[in-house]
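Continuing the batch. This is chain 6 of the set; chains 1 through 5 are on the previous pages. Same settings as before, nothing changed between runs. Recording input and output for traceability.
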Amino acid sequence: MKKTFLIMAVSTTIASFGQNQNPIKYPTTNKGETVDVYFDTKLADPYRWLEDDKSAETGAWVKAQNKVTYDYLAQIPFRDVLKARMEKLWNYEKIGAPFKEGNYTYYYKNNGLQNQSVLYRKDVKGTETVFLDPNTFSKDGTTSLGGLDFSKDGSKVAYAISEGGSDWRKVIIMDAITQKIIEDTLVDVKFSGVSWRGNEGFYYSSYDKPKGSELSAKTDQHKLYYHTLGTPQKQDKIIFGADQKRRYVGGHVTEDNHYLVITASTSTYGNELYIKDLTKSNSPIVTIVDNFKSDSNIIDNEGGKLFIETDLNAPNKRIVTVDVNNPKPENWKDFIPETENVLSPSTGGGYFFANYMKDAVSVVKQYDYSGKLVREIQLPGVGTAGGFSGKKKEKILYYSFTNYITPGSIYSFEPKSGTSAVYEKPKVDFNSEEYESKQVFYTSKDGTKIPMIITHKKGLKLDGTNPTMLYGYGGFNVSLTPSFSIANAVWMENGGIFAVPNLRGGGEYGKKWHDAGTKMQKQNVFDDFIAAAEYLIAQKYTSSEFLAIRGGSNGGLLVGATMNQRPELMKVALPAVGVMDMLRYHTFTSGAGWAYDYGTAQDSKEMFDYIKGYSPVHNIKKGIQYPATMITTGDHDDRVVPAHSFKFAAELQEKQTGINPTLIRIDINAGHGAGKSVAATIQENVDIQAFTLYNMGVNVLQKLNN
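Output for chain 6:
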């Protein structure tokens, strides 16, 4: 029997082959004459026309750019080899943690290469049936399941679907017992969950449909609605948001069905908090927190005793209790006090679980409802644990565990005894014992110590020639914790290094760490990323000729700004779905809600000058050789609209000096990333790795052994 595997080979001959292509002939990108005035500065925006996602001209530009990109990728001799290996490694059964609704146990399963995972269920006799198969939603796999919620007795379910990767959802209501759709589909739902009140109806959130393009027009007044089963959507009652303009509004019903909890915010950080007593007719909405200076949410209740997760006066978060009749912050009492590590709590089985991040890895402690510490849970290793949640009466809970070299496994957990057992361990063709993952701390420009986890094959030679992927994010209080990825496994089994620094702007060390990478401290994030690259080079893990930088969304901004500021530092740049036009980001869809992190160019001349100083679109200069660049985006991205990437690509193609390629790869009928099919995800990762290795001059050869 033949066995296929891949080898990395670097030599003087091979090292130059990726750079000897014929010059790329890029599509012509016409320039317009749009000029904006910011305070006393006039600024041209020649590619403003690319913001019109409905125009034939933009469509033709997308088609022309994709032809150039895919023609380039097709010439890479080992692209198909990479795809074959990635598909083989990806092709294993994946099963999610089970959850009970009514008389059934539900769980997600993917047989390996299915585009979307299938929701199965078992009855009390253990008979397995398919409940929802998103692979049947569309022929091309671009319609995905965007979430679901069961009524209190499990007899009904409302599930959301996303078409073409859009954040706009449709909600379908079904009888869970008969699996028959029971009424008209709700439309135009966005940034929303579904939360049932008993079995008669549910709460959801959305915006009014914008004028113009639904993919790019501004949406900034979110409203909470209540839908009563059996009535048309046009009769749905607005519960919150009609008179108060809030960009993000959410509502959920407590497990005992007694209270509606409402959160409202104007940005991605800080929220007001409200509660409504559902046991009393016409009860008022009561204000708990009336400002946006903290993040607070009710995570559980015992009768009228509320348990609130908050970072008010606790940058690393704490849990407090308060009586529902006097719920203002001055009456809050510590239940689980703040510690030096960031808290992310959950509830289930009649207990609280305090999941702490200690230098970006998990430590989990279990508490009872009196606040007494029951135990610290012994995790399977050093990495990321998640889950420990469920209904109060559950006897068994589930949690996941993973790190950069350990495929995600699911464990059952008995909260009364503290016993864990393997529930589902995937059979992946990857030997974790051959790899190592270690955390280092390096010094950023201003002296701040930054953690970074570096993962690679054991026995790696530190000679500066190792292909290295430096991945970062650094924003919105998002924490990058260790997790396994098939794409990264393929990268590493071919000798690559995968390095992830925990940059400021993230949430790894709480609110202070987040704030240190926002507004006029945003440059700290880029400095942290640059210092990570310099550390890897200084320690001989890699060199500038073998370094790629990668990030998506806010991480795409990170890559764009870094390659502008230090173009000589890396060989390859891979910005994905990035926020590239920082002067106009707030004019699209829900972008204005990002102002807590970024500020806006309209805030002040000082803020305008600062943002303009790093905005990727506005800092590309003629006469500079930028790294080989492949920008990736989706034509239906309505979170970070593709115009950001389009304009960045046009500027870079015009001003790039030298032979390094500047390509943009645009997925059709795809959005910001959620719900992307397995086939599309594999192909994107293959193309990114093939482009990266080809431009580093590293050849991936196929070798067959008997």
